[in-house]
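Q: Could you fold this chain for me?
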Amino acid sequence: MKETMIAFAVQDAIEWSLLHGMALKTSKDSAMHCTFSFAPTLIRRERFELLKSIVPLMGKLIHGVSENHEFLIEAIEPLCSADAFFASLLELHQAIHLSSVPAERIPMLLMRTDFMDDAEYGPKLIEFNGIAAGMGPFGQRAHELHHYLGYQWPAAFQSWSETGSMELVPNHCIENLAKGIAGAAKTVRAQSGDVGQPLFIMVVQPDEDNVYDQHLLEEAIQQEGVKTVRRTFRQLYDQLSSGDNKRLLLEGLGGVDAIYLRAGYQHCDYVAHDLEEVRCCEALGKTRVMIEQHRVALNATVSQQLATSKRVQMLLSSMTIDQLMEFGLTLDEASRIKPFLGEMKPVDDQSAGWFEHQSPKDWVLKNQGEGGGHCVFDHEILPKLKRLQEEEYSAWSLMRRLHPRHRSRSALVVRRGEATPVDDLISEIGMFTLHLDGHSLTSELGYAGYLIRSKPSSVTEGGVHSGQGAVDSLAYGE
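A: Sure. Below is the predicted structure, expressed as C-alpha cells.
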C-alpha cells in the first residue's frame, strides 16, 4: 500500500478524534488528539466474556470491603506513619463513621478494574480504581474510531491489523455509565420528594487538561434528563449547605442527587491558597465529610477510596477463599475471584535480602500513589528496598510483574500527529462496573464497558494521560 494512502488515513483519524472529543486540552483555547492505536488488539471471545463476568463480582467484593469500617481502619492504620495523605483519609473516614452524625450517603461504586493478560498465567488484576475512575468515554471513542477506519479506510486498517477479518468487541461505556448515574440521581430525587430535574455534580480539579473525557460523560447524562454542573472542592466549600431531611443543597440550584469525584486522590486537590494555610486542606477535607452526612448517591466515598487502595489490594490477594467470603461473597463467587487477584507481598526488613535471589524482571515495587510515576522497576527495585526506613515499609508492596503477549505484527501508534510503528505493543484491559449500594446500575449485572490502553512492552509508564500509552479497542480473535 502506498505510504501516502496511510498518511491520508492517519490524518483522517486524527481529525475524527478531535471532532469526537477524544482529546486533551493543551491551553485555554486549544487541544490535541489523544494518542491512539490505528487498529485494535485481539482477545479471545471466551476470555473477554470471562472477564466481563468477573468484574461485577469484584464490585461486590469492594463494596463489602468498603462497608466493613473496622477492617478498613485496621488495614490503613499501618500506612499512616509513612503516607500523610492516607493518614488524612483515615481521619476523614473516622470522622464520617465514628461520629454521632450518621453517614447518610448512598455509596455509588463507579469502578474500573484493570487487568493484564499474562502470557503464562492468564489475566491478573493490576489495580482497582475506585476514585476518579475515568476514560471510559475514550474507551468507547477508540472503539468507534476503529469501526470508522475499518469502513472508511479498509485497506489501511487491514494493513495494520493482526488478522484479515475481525469482529470489534462492542463498547457502550458512555451510554451505560450515563444511564446508571442518571438512574441513581432520579432514584434519590424521587425518594426526597423534590420535583424537577435531578442534579448531578462532577467534582473536578481546577485547570486540568483531561476534560473532554469528562464532558463526554456529562453530555450523555444531560441527555438522560439530569442537570450537570462542575465544581472544585474549593467552590463546594462555599456553596454547599444542609436542607431538610438530610438533603444536600447547592447554592442557587437546590437539592443534589448524585456526585462523582474526578478529584480527591492527591493532597493538592484539597489545597486552597485563599484559606488559612495551616487549615486549608483540613477545611476542604471536611467538605467530603459534610457530603457523606447527606442523602446523596456518591462516588467515591472515602471508604471506597480506602478499599481500592494498593494496601487493601495486597491484603485481599493474600486472603483465603473463606476470608474473602467475609465481605459478602458466596463460596462460588470467592472461588471465581481468587485466581485473578494475583500475587503481592508486603515489604519488611527481610524484603531486600529476599529480593537479591529473585529476577528483577519478575516483580514491581509499588507505593500507594494514583496515576503514573508510583512504581519502581527492574534493577532500581533492590536499591530502593535498601533505602526504605522501617516506618516506610507499610506504604510499599511487591507485585509479581505481568508479561502479556505482544501483538503478532507491528502496530501503528499515532501520537501528536505522528504515526509510529511499534513492534511489541501490549495492552492493559480496564473494565468498568457501576453499582448503587451494592445493586447493579446497568443491564449486565453492573458491567458498563471497557478501556484498552496499549504501550510498548519496554515502557513502564503506560498511562495515556501521563505516560507512553495509547487508547485502543478490542476485536475478537485468537
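A (continued): The first helix runs from residue 3 to 19.
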